[in-house]
User: Fold this.
Amino acid sequence: MAEYADDKIAHLSAEVARLKWELKGKRGEKPKGKSAPETQSPHFLTFIRTPHMATFEVLSPSGAAPYKFSLVNAHFLFGGDGRSERRERENEFNALTDWMLERVASNRSHNRNYILLGGMNLAFDTEEDKRRKAIIERIKAMNATLKAREAATVVNFPFIDPRRDPRTDKITLIRSNARQDQTFDRIAIFAKDERLPGFAANPDVADDPDPDGFDYQHFDFADLFAETVLGPTTELSDMAMGPKSKFIDRFQHDVSDHMPIWIRLPLPA
Assistant:
């Protein structure tokens, strides 16, 4: 923080010198400028949008102990892909997941199961994208922290993994925007309750999902709209870029340009 303050003072001093030079008719050598430091503080201060949380219980028809978890809805910084914007999004992601990690690992917490969901805007284009690899390394580090603290729980980000697309039968990343070219949206599980699915359950879902068990996917309303408006044999995913963009423009503001994503939990047993 001290380094940031020093850079800010140096920048303002250079600006004052430049203004004096201009007021004197620009006589003499122009003062050298000092570029402004990044507008974001190098340390996390606050969320752009405050996350919201509500606590739920899911009862069991068999009389088993219910699921008890807190649902945390977050929408991280939107827009821009410059270094400062990416850093701010990462700061928000790190701050919130650190807090949730501490809650599930602490014996003093009232609730030790959390589900995080929302538009996190941590986009990556391919499986090899360095931003995806950085998120995976952080997930591994969080699980290692829990193991070291002997906390019987896991952190699972199922939408980070590729899975089979039922339409094309190809293994691919789940893309949740209407154009299906972005990976902004996430659901994550921070679970003390061992009945809630950890990351080891993800490959089984991709290969052969249990109709009554854990599953996750997006709801493709974009194709549903195309079939309804343009005809039952029309799929938005097969349209050329120009017509597709024009069609999406018809509903992206009145409905959404993001498709819902969901997870299904098995009934508590």
